[in-house]
Design brief:
seven-stranded antiparallel beta sheet; 28% helix
Length: 158
Amino acid sequence: MKKFDLNIDRMLENWDAFHAIREIIANALDEQILTGTREIAISRDGDGQWRIRDFGRGLRHEHFTMNENQEKLDHPGLIGKFGVGLKDALATFDRLGIETRIRSKFCDVSFDRSEKHDFSDVITLHACISDPSDPVFVGTEFILKGCSNEDIEKAKRL
């Protein structure tokens, strides 16, 4: 496992869970539009975890950096453009205690708060990147534990 520092030490205070979930749904919809793949899936599994999945190209660790995405900038019908929203969503989930995992064919990702490299007095949110549990997985799946049905429904309405 490798840790990718998301450089988030203070948690976003003005978002609720449904704002963060809306961001994940918006990213999945953008990927659907960009790749022409089938509709995204939002479901609740037998353990009460919510799963938001697209059937696109799959998330890579590089997606945790904030930068302008030229592909998204060139496509006027998309919601996101810069990659800021994903980190905001992850910070919100962390602040609210919503356990978040991500699966793609490139990696499995979980999250923790740990020391910033060479600065033991600064604790930041890190993406814990592991080899993929399913190297032929199609798309990206966010697995959320601890959010409510109401949060999901509010997010869908946005």
